[in-house]
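Field reference: sequence -> structure
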Amino acid sequence: MTDTGDEQTFGQRLIQAAHEALAYKGGELPDARVTRAKVTARRVDVVAPPEYSQADIRRIRDGLGLSQAVFAELIGASTSTVRAWEQGVREPSEMARRLIALAERDPEIFAKDMVPAGSAND
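Structure field:
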């Protein structure tokens, strides 16, 4: 395919589309036709959550500055379950390990779920 001057290269069309998207987002193209497509992942490899020792769980909880009761409520476990993890009596399930990993990786993610006692219904 040769370029006759009227045809745009793929790169030029891509750049033009990016400019149009920015203009639309900025409200400069209110009547633009927008097509949205939902993309569903059918196959992915999911990395297993890490294993946590009793010391790891306590370190993460202490790092968040939370009691066992508050940490348990935050991740949907009972206080006795968190205590058993920290004493090495039980090991967290895969789902619990995923939440613990999230708390370790991005502690702020739980911050919006915590409000001072008595103000949750305000």
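Note: The mean pLDDT is 88.
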